[in-house]
Amino acid sequence: MDLIPSTILTGFLGAGKTTLLNRILQEEHGMRIAIIENEFGQENIDNEILVQDSSEQIVEMNNGCICCTVRGDLIVALTNLAQKRAAGEISFDRVVIETTGLANPGPVAQTFFVDEEVGANYLLDAVVTVVDARHAMDQLTQNEEAQRQVGFADKILLSKTDLVDAAAVETLKARLHRINPRAPIATSDFGRAPISDVLDLRGFNLNDKLELDPDFLKVEEAHDHDHDHDHAHCGHDHAHGEACNHDHHHGHHTDDIAAFVFKSERAFDPERLEQFLGSLVQVFGPQMLRYKGVLRMEGVDRKVVFQGVHQIMGSDVGPKWGENETPATKMVFIGKNLPKDVFVRGLEQCLV
């Protein structure tokens, strides 16, 4: 049986998650979507209206969508949904989990990889983050949760852009790009966003055998413009843009969560890389929000796709390198106060 594609819809309080979700549910798209209103942690501010006295309530709505309101364990909710689907009691094609506005998306995403039954039934398709263009600059400065939600995103949707001018939107986009340079940014004013901006993004899959989303690498290349520097002595370069230096003072905001990129045309020694990445995860795992890349490995004639969340890391063999493609590694790390120099030096030492 095919895995059930699942989307995590996150965003800070009042960003417009529910508005977006309601519009998706009203569209004539022919999909049957199970909605989980996720009460992860103690905060239930966004979803108070939907919470019932029972720990879980599943309601089938007129348009063929199923709403499952959860207070507590997401693993239990996902497992119950899968069991009822298998028994023919309910029917749905995909799942959307709407988190509370104060949620850290990390534990929600990890749910798909730490439980065997959930992993056997579901595929985490993407983390989609709605960002309030009117209030985001203050929210990002004052709330780490808002930064984490952006840092985890595979896709960012800007809402309320009608309430700010074009210059403010561009300033916000630049800041979002520094926090998470690989997430494409689109708009979702009044919940209006193509369903293709939310579902079936294939943005997050630890064992995806396919090539990474091309937008991921295109965004990196566009971001690197004047910041590449070549290291003739080691035969590779590790590009890094403004995202790397979150303590700089060029009129930018100093967000704790930032990203940096490592690139090299030299192959990795598999054993050395595995040991080094294992040590990184042990020491910095809680700070490593997302990491992802295409790797060139010695003795492997195909791309190796690599992804992780916090301490959960995985890789898989992907497609062959293209005829006109130069085999090379491109990795992005997104995290809180990560020591870029430690990561880069260690990765350099893992090269053949």
From TrEMBL:
<dbReference type="GO" id="GO:0000166">
    <property type="term" value="F:nucleotide binding"/>
</dbReference>
<comment type="function">
    <text>Zinc chaperone that directly transfers zinc cofactor to target proteins, thereby activating them. Zinc is transferred from the CXCC motif in the GTPase domain to the zinc binding site in target proteins in a process requiring GTP hydrolysis.</text>
</comment>
<dbReference type="InterPro" id="IPR036627">
    <property type="entry name" value="CobW-likC_sf"/>
</dbReference>
<protein>
    <recommendedName>
        <fullName>CobW C-terminal domain-containing protein</fullName>
    </recommendedName>
</protein>
<keyword id="KW-0378">Hydrolase</keyword>
<dbReference type="Pfam" id="PF02492">
    <property type="entry name" value="cobW"/>
</dbReference>
<dbReference type="GO" id="GO:0005737">
    <property type="term" value="C:cytoplasm"/>
</dbReference>
<dbReference type="InterPro" id="IPR003495">
    <property type="entry name" value="CobW/HypB/UreG_nucleotide-bd"/>
</dbReference>
<feature type="domain" description="CobW C-terminal">
    <location>
        <begin position="257"/>
        <end position="351"/>
    </location>
</feature>
<keyword id="KW-0143">Chaperone</keyword>
<keyword id="KW-0547">Nucleotide-binding</keyword>
<dbReference type="InterPro" id="IPR027417">
    <property type="entry name" value="P-loop_NTPase"/>
</dbReference>
<dbReference type="GO" id="GO:0016787">
    <property type="term" value="F:hydrolase activity"/>
</dbReference>
<dbReference type="InterPro" id="IPR051316">
    <property type="entry name" value="Zinc-reg_GTPase_activator"/>
</dbReference>
<dbReference type="Pfam" id="PF07683">
    <property type="entry name" value="CobW_C"/>
</dbReference>
<comment type="similarity">
    <text>Belongs to the SIMIBI class G3E GTPase family. ZNG1 subfamily.</text>
</comment>
<dbReference type="InterPro" id="IPR011629">
    <property type="entry name" value="CobW-like_C"/>
</dbReference>
